[in-house]
Amino acid sequence: MKKAFRNGLKFILATLSVAFSLQATAATIIRIGTEELVNLSELIFEGVVLSVTAEQNTNNTIYTYVSFSVEDVIVGTVEAGETLTLRFTGGEVNGIRLETGVRIPEIDERGIYFVERVSPGLINPLLGWEQGHFLVTRAGYVITGNRQPVLGVVRQSLLGAQQLSTGVAGGIQTGLIPSSGDTTGSSDDTADSRLSVTEFKQKIRELRK
Predict the structure, then answer these.
(1) Which residues contact 141 (CB under 8 A, 6 or more apart)?
(2) What's the whole-model pTM score?
(3) Which one of 7, 9, 55, 98 has the largest count of C-beta atoms within 10 Å of its C-beta?
(4) Which residue, 186, 181, 86, is CA-closest to 132?
(5) Domain locations in the chain?
């Protein structure tokens, strides 16, 4: 009984250690600009989430594997029509949940994803975490990962600025009122100013060097 208790305690402590470590990392994500978002991504694609599967490894770390149907490739060597699987750190297995601050794509969501690295190894494969995660609404408009309507995309670099991430990359204009000196802008008529998925992808292609 004591041995089982000690093993259980070790597991809990190990899990908490990983969780606190990853949450600390998540809290200090650096804000990037569209210049970095577009040109430092290994892959940028539009796709639909086919499946979301969480697994726990021998070190008690939980990973969630998200499989996408790739529908359009803006940057990268993956072909449209392929199925792509990306690994995210965190998730839930058998009632045990590991929170890392990573917003994991959900089943059936359609989005545009800026992938820093396709191969496993990063806590979040999306560049800038939430900054590289955009959703496409049923009406065909683009919103940020934290559900702000995208009104425009302009070139901006924040390299070396050492700003903390707000969830939206610099140069992505949203429906929020901008802070002083920021290019995250607002519009008098958000509904009429929203970017369609076609317009958004065209602006991303124009920013690519």
Answers:
(1) 149, 150, 194, 195, 196, 197
(2) 0.81
(3) 98
(4) 86
(5) 2-207
